[in-house]
Amino acid sequence: MNHLGLWVIRIAIVLILLFLLSRCVDFFSQAVKCGEDSEAVLYARSLSQERLEKLYEDMERYSIKDNLPSDGYKVYQKDVVVPDEFNDLKVVIIRPFDGNIMIKGCMDHYVYLDFHGIGLLKEHRPERKIVLKWGEHSRAGSELLWRDNEHNQ
């Protein structure tokens, strides 16, 4: 094969690789949907104050149980029985001992409900509240969803 033929093949290979790379970038940019405008964040914001209060009470009660799964209740695992108090939630992992619920995990970006006043960090974060957290690093954000005004005073 002559030099022109090899050059054409090389250019064709480079163009195919660039096309495939652009498809990968499109796929991963769509896959990372854990920002402020994601469905997971909108879902968390849609929980009523009554549901958040009840959720806090349930997480608090479960956080002191002895027989908790060490890594929480992974909703997607078939052999895990999610307690009835949490089975209406559209989430991935419920970790009462750690004081958080992962709503969505997107590669290395996450959407969490973070429960202050319970779990491992109770003494460092004593105020009873639920904080919604999303994203990572410079794109991270948070929003107070619920606060127990009766007990925080």
Task: Report what the structure shows.
The longest helix is centred in the N-terminal third of the chain and has 29 residues, at 3-31. This protein is elongated. The mean pLDDT is 85. Helix content is 34%, strand content 22%. It has helices spanning 3-31, 39-46, 49-63; strands at residues 73-74, 93-95, 100-106, 109-116, 129-135, 141-147. With 153 residues, it is α+β, with helices and mostly antiparallel strands. Strand 2 (93-95) and strand 3 (100-106) form a beta hairpin. It has a 6-stranded antiparallel β-sheet.
Please summarize what this structure is.
With 153 residues, this protein is of the alpha+beta class. It is built from three helices and six strands; from the N terminus they run αααββββββ.
Which properties best describe this structure?
153 residues; 3 helices; six-stranded antiparallel sheet
Distance between the termini: 83 Å
The helix/strand order is HHHEEEEEE
Q: How would you name the oligomeric state of the polypeptide chains in this document?
A: single chain
Shape: elongated
Largest sheet: 6 strands, antiparallel
- What do the pLDDT scores average to? 85
Proportion in helices: 25-40%
Q: What is the spatial order of strands in the main beta sheet?
A: 1-2-3-4-5-6
| Range of strand content | 15-25%
Number of helices: 3
- The number of E-state strands comes to 6
Structural class based on helices, strands and sheet pairing: alpha+beta
Instruction: Return residue spans where pLDDT drops below 50 for at least 5 consecutive residues.
Output: none
Query: What's the alpha carbon Rg, rounded to whole Å?
Result: 22 Å
